[in-house]
Amino acid sequence: MGEPLHDTISVIIPVLNEADKIAKTLLFLKSVSTVEAIVVDGGSGDDTVAVAQTYGVTVLQTSPGRAHQMNAGAARATGTVLLFLHADSQLPHNFVEQVHRTLAQPNVIAGAFDLVIDSPAFSLRLVEWGVKWRSRLLQLPYGDQAIFLKADTFRRVGGFTELPIMEDFDFVKRLQKLGRVAIAPASVITSARRWEKLGVLQTTLINQLVIFAYFLGVPRDRIAQWYRSGMRQANRKRRD
Q: For 27-50, what is the mean pLDDT?
């Protein structure tokens, strides 16, 4: 990790074939002077890297795996705060203020945002409601909520464990041992594509089964296999 830049937030974006989503995200980030954007590509077969390079941000190319990509981005980051962002998510316009204010709260070790899904579907309002209460009551935000923390805290906790699935869940559970994980009073807007692909009910059911298996101690590689298999089967049924 480079020499820390005071008050700079390093926004780390792991990507894989996100050429159609990354431009909007980077256009906004480039307008914020106290932000360093780092795109970490995991082997895209489209124009993701070329699109990102046109915005003059740091672009790294690594082996695939979200946890590995985020760790690589953190190792290059120069900011005092790290924020991990999905390529299809848009941060609130005042996110810099919200990040610093949240991390300044007593006993807060990390933070994230509420989630808004970019779709008018009522069923997704129910998903948002569930995310809101899970995040606030259990202090358990997921990666699509733009988790942020101080760079020295990231190093202290050892970064993301390089798991094939649920690396964000594992990361937050370890952070909880150090302090409170707070939710900033603002929202990240994320694409509805993963819910629209399979349907809200099927996507939610698969996600909950994965979490249940995690708590039962099922090996992560096996959970990842089940998850991919479940997504493929659900996708086939939906097409049929």
A: 96
| 3-state per-residue secondary structure call for the chain | CCCCEEEEEEEEEEECCCCCCHHHHHHHHCCCCCEEEEEEECCCCCCHHHHHHCCCCEEEECCCCHHHHHHHHHHHCCEEEEEECCCCEECCCCHHHHHHHHHCCCCEEEEEEEEEEECCCHHHHHHHHHHHHHHHHHCCCCHHHCCEEEHHHHHHHCCCCCCCCCHHHHHHHHHHCCCEEEEEEEEEEEECHHHHHHCHHHHHHHHHHHHHHHHCCCCHHHHHHHHHHHHHHHHHHHHC
More confident residue, 221 or 95: 95
- Residue 130 to residues 123, 126, 135, 190, Cα–Cα distance (Å): 11, 6, 8, 15
pTM (2 d.p.): 0.88
The two structure tokens encoding residue 118: 């970019």
Strand order in the sheet with 79-84: 58-61, 35-41, 5-15, 79-84, 148-150, 108-118, 180-191, 89-90
Cβ-contact 81, 101 below 8 angstroms: no
Tens digit of each residue's pLDDT (9 = 90 or more) over 84-121: 999 999 999 999 999 999 999 999 999 999 999 999 99
The maximal CA–CA distance of the chain, rounded, in angstroms, is: 54
- Short-list 15, 92, 1, CA closest to 55: 15
